């Protein structure tokens, strides 16, 4: 066989293999991210850094950002590093909520990136942490930890065949940061939905097709799912929708209860008039923190719809959960375009892309400006249009 034929066969096998492995790799790195989030909350030294609010003279004299931002950036960079080193096709198209450049009042800047080894990463982190080597070493240990495969449930993962060369990734390292910092005990809202607390914290990773703009693979990790004494255990769920392939984690496939009242999950700060109209239409209104968590509630069937009238979510908040909802036959559409402009659901479905410069990454172009409606059952959105649309 000629070398060219062999090379083509090898390329084909590589692409096929990469399809399967990208899901495995995302599950593993989401678990590593969740682990970093748990370590920071459970380590006595790190938790002090997380919750203290520095004021005036106390502020880090070298670098102005707080520890919370560093934790976010570190998790985001760990995902970028682990996925980028394994899948070079996608390395230049991995985007996150946070800029990884830290700067101080003197104009010095430092870029936080995972280094070749633990010692080098600790040295870099120590600079941003004003020489706090204890914190830097603890974090670097977790960033470079080689997760055992048994830490993540890898059973029954499907064969995927994703065109990674035309894909991008959006990461939200810690969604619901205020709940993460306060660390309060979760309070139940309705239908097993947490109103607030660590249960609403999620790590969100979404793969999108840069050509079609569709989200195709999503992983959502809840680092604080269950507590055993002082130890937290997480929960990770995934979904893929690409072409004819629709697959998701087994735990999402449980039967929905037909006889319960319909539940709409909303942010506590949502328009009271909207809550009132939903209740009049027979909905139970459940309030919950965290955009990622609210989308997960819909994916799991704890809620039927998540409505958001404001432009307070960004592509990193929705890309991963949106892919999971699509794998279940649902989706996410623009609130305004469906309810005010009367567009059909296909036209109004959210699309993904990314601008490359750091300044543009956090700009309005990545904001879901017109609000969102997340659903599993599209007939409920058609009903909602009749309930809420001004006639
Ligand atoms: Mg977020």
TrEMBL record:
InterPro entries: CysQ/Inositol_MonoPase, Inositol_monoP_metal-BS, Inositol_monophosphatase-like, Inositol_monophosphatase_CS, INPP1_dom_1. Its EC number is 3.1.3.57. Mg(2+) binds at residues 97, 172, 174-175, 317. GO terms for biological process: phosphatidylinositol phosphate biosynthetic process. Its cofactor is Mg(2+). It is an enzyme of class 3 (hydrolase). It comes from the Eukaryota. Keywords: Lithium, Magnesium, Metal-binding. It catalyses: 1D-myo-inositol 1,4-bisphosphate + H2O = 1D-myo-inositol 4-phosphate + phosphate; 1D-myo-inositol 1,3,4-trisphosphate + H2O = 1D-myo-inositol 3,4-bisphosphate + phosphate. Pfam families: Inositol_P. Coiled coil: none annotated. One of its GO terms (molecular function) is inositol-1,4-bisphosphate 1-phosphatase activity. PANTHER family: 3'(2'),5'-BISPHOSPHATE NUCLEOTIDASE 1 (PTHR43028), INOSITOL POLYPHOSPHATE 1-PHOSPHATASE (PTHR43028:SF3). Belongs to the inositol monophosphatase superfamily. This is inositol-1,4-bisphosphate 1-phosphatase.
């Amino acid at each position: 066989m000629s070398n060219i034929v062999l090379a083509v066969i090898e390329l084909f096998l590589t692409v096929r293999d990469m399809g399967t492995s990208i899901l495995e790799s995302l599950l593993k790195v989401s678990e590593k991210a969740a682990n970093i989030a748990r370590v920071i909350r459970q380590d006595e030294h790190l938790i002090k850094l997380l919750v203290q609010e520095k004021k005036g003279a106390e502020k880090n004299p070298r670098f102005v950002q707080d520890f919370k931002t560093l934790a976010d950036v570190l998790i985001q960079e760990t995902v970028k590093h682990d996925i980028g080193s394994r899948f070079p096709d996608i390395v230049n198209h991995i985007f996150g909520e946070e800029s990884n450049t830290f700067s101080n009042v003197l104009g010095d800047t430092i870029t936080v990136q995972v280094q070749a080894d633990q010692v080098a990463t600790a040295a870099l982190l120590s600079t941003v942490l004003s020489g706090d080597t204890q914190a830097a070493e603890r974090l670097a240990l977790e960033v470079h930890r080689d997760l055992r495969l048994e830490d993540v449930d890898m059973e029954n993962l499907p064969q995927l065949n994703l065109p990674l060369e035309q894909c991008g990734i959006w990461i939200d390292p810690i969604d619901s940061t205020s709940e993460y910092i306060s660390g309060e005990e979760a309070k139940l809202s309705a239908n097993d939905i947490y109103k607030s607390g660590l249960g609403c914290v999620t790590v969100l990773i979404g793969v999108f097709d840069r050509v079609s703009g569709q989200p195709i693979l999503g992983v959502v990790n809840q680092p604080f799912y269950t507590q055993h004494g002082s130890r937290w255990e997480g929960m990770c769920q995934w979904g893929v929708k690409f072409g004819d392939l629709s697959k998701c984690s087994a735990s999402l496939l449980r039967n929905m209860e037909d006889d319960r009242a319909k539940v709409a999950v909303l942010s506590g700060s949502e328009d009271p008039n909207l809550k009132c109209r939903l209740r009049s239409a027979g909905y139970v209104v459940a309030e919950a923190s965290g955009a990622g968590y609210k989308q997960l509630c819909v994916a799991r069937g704890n809620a039927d719809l998540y409505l958001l009238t404001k432009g307070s979510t960004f592509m990193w908040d929705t890309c991963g959960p949106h892919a999971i909802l699509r794998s279940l036959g649902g989706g996410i559409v623009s609130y305004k375009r469906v309810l005010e402009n009367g567009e059909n659901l296909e036209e109004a479905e959210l699309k993904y892309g990314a601008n490359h410069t750091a300044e543009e990454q956090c700009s309005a172009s990545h904001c879901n400006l017109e609000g969102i409606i997340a659903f599993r059952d599209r007939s409920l959105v058609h009903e909602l249009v009749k309930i809420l649309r001004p006639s």
